[in-house]
Specification:
Layout lengths: L13 E4 L2 H10 L4 E5 L9 E3 L7 H9 L4 E5 L6
Antiparallel strand pairs: 1-4, 2-3, 2-4
Length: 81
């Protein structure tokens, strides 16, 4: 959550929630491609790149992540490696 204190101009748009509907709305606002990851944890475990064609699996992805707590939904930045 530290990154939320950085200026918006240098970080991806971010939402922290457990609400499926908020994540679905965020995905639509972002044009269909977002990154989903757990708030707790590390090492890339349960991190998903959600593209428009993956939308039918969105609820399963959210369930896999939110089992452990809150979900971070972020704007996808294609230039980040």
């Amino acid at each position: 959550m530290y990154s939320l204190f950085l200026p918006e101009s240098i970080r991806p748009r971010t939402m922290i929630t457990r609400d499926h509907n908020e994540i679905i709305a965020f995905q639509k606002e972002e044009g269909g491609t977002i990154v989903l990851k757990p708030l707790a944890g590390s090492g890339g475990r349960n991190v998903f790149l959600l593209r428009p064609q993956d939308a039918p699996n969105l609820h399963q992805m959210i369930e896999a992540i939110s089992d452990e707590g809150y979900v971070i939904a972020q704007e996808f930045l294609p230039d980040i490696k």
